[in-house]
Amino acid sequence: MTSIGPFPMHAVLVIVVALLARWLVLALARRMGGAVYSAAPKRAGALFTDAFFVGLLVARLGYVLRWWSEYAAAPWSIVAIGDGGFLWWTGLPAALAFVGWCTRKHPSLRKPLVIGIGTGLLAWFALASALALLQRSAPPIPAITGAKLDGASVKLAPSAGKPVLLNLWATWCPPCRREMPVFVDALQRYPDVDIVLLNQGEDADTIRAFLEQQQLRLHDHVLLDPQSQAMPTSHTRGLPTTLFFDADGRLVTSYMGELTRASLADTLHKHFDARSATPSPPRNEHNLAEPLLSRPTRRASAVGERVPRRRRLLG
Description:
disordered C terminus; 3-stranded antiparallel β-sheet; single chain; alpha+beta; Glutaredoxin; 2 domains; 5-stranded mixed β-sheet
């Protein structure tokens, strides 16, 4: 499961955990500090909200510093918090320090706030671990047959000895369009990862025109899925969605929304220990995706049905 409706699962988990922790803080403040300080519950709730956002801000700054080389290449992505880039171990001390400073005149509020924050963090780890287990039990690479831009029929299959990045996208989807340069860059920097861009429901002429207009050298990595079979098969509800498979074709993790250079580098490093290769001059991209794609002898039409614009997307 990658989402609930149009919302990524990790974003849903953060909201659920924050609400649970805030409820606990209010309950404890009424019980522990209400008799001494009548405004304790209201004050504790407000402080928790402020500490939550302070922690998020510092966690984001920590992540940006951790992956500064990636963000420096695309500074606009620093504010693209949808990439999920946060370091909890930098945000947590900041949130606790904020709580300590703000409760110096009302120390009775510290215990409810610290317990609430700690419980929320434990709940986050538990739910995130459960989500990771669910993803690992998800179906393997979708067993569908698509077509290349030249009309050749191809079938998705596990790559021999390489992890696979499978991106579901469409030209009408703004975040899909914005993340395309990230994949152009990734092809040069991560040669040990197979990258396949599986277009959902568009024809070859539309895709080719988009690639040429944007000057994107991705033609040999694009596949057509005219009937958008990959979305229901992978339980995907929005575009763009990126699925990460190991060399055996098992789903390791997924990401719904726009990838940035930093979030992609982080995911590849975390799950596949993939590191950026030394930059090299542009190379011939022909057949770079062939380890993942097995060619049947038959040909397939490159013309498919356009995905309706009512399809949910992020951004």
